[in-house]
């Protein structure tokens, strides 16, 4: 169940898994990690864009969580305790290569898009290259997120993609409800202004179209048909996975922009067992737990 919705009711189940994990029950620890790992990973993926970097960051966060389980005293919900660790790690971690490239600038990102030569496709070519065009579209939207500051990005990911309301978002980020709403509104506005002024999918008056950029991006640029980062068949969309309804907080953004981000990919992390095994062999984890 999405841990960022009001109806999240599994904190009690988490507490049982925590107690068993601290007592050395390997299966309980694995169940606890598997339960929250996909959400942490998808936050990391949206924060840094590159899947490999996101996996490393997720591993770092979960080592912190697992090695500090005994310090959870139940003064807040486990959800709040856990995702405060997640948020603090993301705010304090070293800048990723992708973050450094974008350098928190919509202007710089726009200039990079302009530097990609337009190579129009015929209608037949557009149909033939739908997978690559979709990949180009998703890569572009991912780049837009990197133009937000880390603080804005986290608020946007929690509030918009995962559907955290102002009460849950404020509790996790340790800010007021009003401040959370203001931060989310500003992040939406910044993204909307860029998309409205730049993206041809949102505003037909804009000349930028993914299908015009796709030839150069795949033949000469950073994208690869053999190694798609976003447009994979086993990925769900956030809309499909989170199953959140539209709410009035998005009044500032037009429907098309919302639709684009709602269909941003959600990676279900099929290799959870392999990930857990790597986590459980971490030196810090081994030193603290006598798992059976």
Number of helical regions? 16
Mean pLDDT: 84
Strand order of the largest sheet: 1-2
CATH topology: Butyryl-CoA Dehydrogenase, subunit A, domain 3
Strand content is: under 5%
Provide the low-confidence segments as ranges: 243-254
Could you describe the largest sheet, including whether it forms a barrel?
A: 2 strands, antiparallel
Instruction: Please bin the fraction of helical residues.
Output: 55-70%
CATH architecture: Up-down Bundle
Could you state the CATH homologous superfamily?
PhyR, sigma-like (SL) domain
N-to-C terminal Cα separation, in Å? 27 Å
Structural class: mainly alpha
Global morphology: globular
Describe the structure.
The protein is mainly alpha-helical. It has a single domain (11-288), classed as Up-down Bundle (Butyryl-CoA Dehydrogenase, subunit A, domain 3), CATH 1.20.140.160. 64% of the residues lie in helices and 1% in strands. The protein is built from 16 helices and 2 strands. The chain has a two-stranded antiparallel ribbon. Helix 2 (26-48) packs across helix 3. The protein is globular.
Short summary of the structure?
With 292 residues, this protein is mainly alpha-helical. The chain contains 16 helices and two strands. It has a single domain, classed as Butyryl-CoA Dehydrogenase, subunit A, domain 3.
């Amino acid at each position: 169940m999405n841990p960022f919705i009001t109806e999240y009711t599994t904190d009690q189940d988490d507490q049982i898994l925590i107690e068993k994990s601290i007592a050395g029950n390997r299966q309980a620890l694995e169940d606890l990690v598997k339960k929250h790992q996909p959400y942490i990973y998808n936050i990391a993926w949206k924060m840094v864009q590159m899947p490999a970097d996101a996996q490393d960051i997720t591993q770092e966060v979960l080592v912190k969580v697992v090695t500090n389980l005994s310090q959870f005293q139940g003064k807040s919900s486990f959800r709040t305790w856990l995702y405060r660790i997640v948020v603090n790690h993301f705010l304090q971690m070293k800048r990723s290569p992708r973050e450094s490239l974008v350098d928190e600038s919509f202007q710089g990102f726009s200039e990079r898009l302009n530097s990609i030569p337009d190579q129009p496709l015929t209608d037949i070519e557009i149909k033939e290259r739908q997978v690559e065009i979709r990949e180009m579209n998703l890569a572009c939207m991912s780049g837009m997120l990197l133009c937000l500051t880390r603080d804005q990005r986290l608020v946007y990911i929690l509030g918009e993609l995962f559907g955290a309301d102002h009460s849950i978002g404020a509790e996790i980020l340790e800010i007021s409800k009003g401040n959370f709403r203001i931060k989310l509104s500003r992040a939406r506005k910044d993204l909307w202004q860029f998309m409205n002024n730049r993206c041809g999918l949102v505003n037909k008056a804009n000349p930028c179209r993914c299908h015009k950029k796709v030839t150069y991006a795949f033949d000469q640029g950073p994208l690869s048909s053999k190694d798609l980062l976003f447009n994979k068949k086993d990925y769900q969309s956030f809309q499909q996975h989170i199953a959140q309804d539209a709410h009035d907080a998005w009044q500032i953004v037009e429907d098309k922009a919302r639709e684009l981000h709602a269909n941003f990919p959600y990676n279900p992390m099929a290799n959870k067992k392999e990930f857990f095994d790597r986590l459980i062999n971490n030196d810090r984890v081994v030193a603290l737990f006598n798992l059976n």
